[in-house]
Amino acid sequence: MSVVAAVVTVLLWASSFVVIRFCGAAFSPGALAFLRLSVGTIALVAVALISRPPLPRGRGLALVVAYGVLWFAAYTVVLNWAEQHLDAGTAALLVNFAPILVAVLAGLFLSEGFPRPLVVGIVVAFTGVVLIAMGGSGVGANDRLGVALGLVAAVLYALGVLLQKVALRTVNGVAATWVGCAAGLVATTPFALRAVDEVAAAPPTALAGVIFLGVGPTAIAFLTWAYALNRTDAGKMAATTLAVPAVAIVLSWLLLGEVPTVLGFVGGALALGGVMISRRKALRRPSFWTVRRPDDTTRTELDQVDTPRSVG
């Protein structure tokens, strides 16, 4: 079942890039984020009412709210904006630069340092990002605004997961997810009135896409990821997320007729290769992130930190 859960997670995250691109024709970035988080919060609260996890308090609550605003709200709005300038595949490739950014931030602020594999991975991945920027989007002109927004989304994601990592030391995972999503919803309320106006004019297919984004990638994918992660090796699960851009490209081609440029493909391969270099080597050396559990099993928490849990 863990394999099935992992496959469902990857498919949902990958499809979110395609659905965001599709819904962008009917909804502005902020309105789409507000509607998606509204649906997601309702679904996650329903799960929380069944499982009844303890609510976060004090510092834990502050961290959950902070990561919810950065990840669920700001990241979602910026990604929606980026996909009005980029095809879904290119956006997915850029966002998956985030694990490198997480490693850099961990090295700067969490005493992780900069071992040689990480430096090599950064150089390779950054070269890939440059090629993506040079190649532009597969939908026409070279849109550097879209590339810049995609990288900003990756930075916001990286900051969000670092805060989430610290929060999860003391906060239940289900509680952190629904409270974080609710915090993101509150942060996007300035777009509520515009969302209402756009809903009134949106076609049924776009409305269905919004519901899918809230229930699928925002709610179900979090739960299936947690299920799979608790039942298999974290490193293996981390590697599965590298399939997200590839699946997103295929779905974008099949459903929207869009693909990245040749330089985009090459750059994306380099970017993902750089991520693999930095992560594979990091798993072999003990670090601050390695935690001893009561049952004497160990787990590298960095695998969870730099692995997208909601990449779309």
Verbal overview:
This protein is mostly helical. It has one domain. It is built from 14 helices and 2 strands. Strands 1-2 form a two-stranded antiparallel ribbon. A hairpin with a 5-residue loop joins β1 and β2. It is globular, with a radius of gyration of 18 Å. It starts with a helix and ends in a 7-residue tail after the last helix. 57% of the residues are buried. The C terminus is likely disordered.
Keyphrases for this structure?
single chain, 312 residues, mainly alpha, two-stranded antiparallel ribbon, 74% helix, disordered C terminus
Q: Count the beta strands.
A: 2
Structural class designation: mainly alpha
- Which percent band covers the strand fraction? under 5%
Q: Write down the Rg.
A: 18 Å
End-to-end Cα distance = 23 Å
Order of helices and strands: HHHHHHHHHHHHHEEH
Strand order, sheet with most strands:
1-2
What best-fitting shape do the alpha-carbon axes yield? Answer: globular
**Helix count?**
14
Mean pLDDT across residues: 80
Secondary structure layout plus pairing:
Elements: H1 2-23, H2 29-51, H3 58-82, H4 88-95, H5 98-109, H6 116-135, H7 144-167, H8 173-187, H9 192-201, H10 204-229, H11 234-240, H12 243-256, H13 262-282, E1 290-292, E2 298-300, H14 301-305
Antiparallel strand pairs: 1-2
Helix pairs in contact: 1-4, 1-10, 1-12, 2-3, 2-8, 2-9, 2-10, 3-7, 3-8, 4-7, 4-12, 5-7, 6-13, 8-10
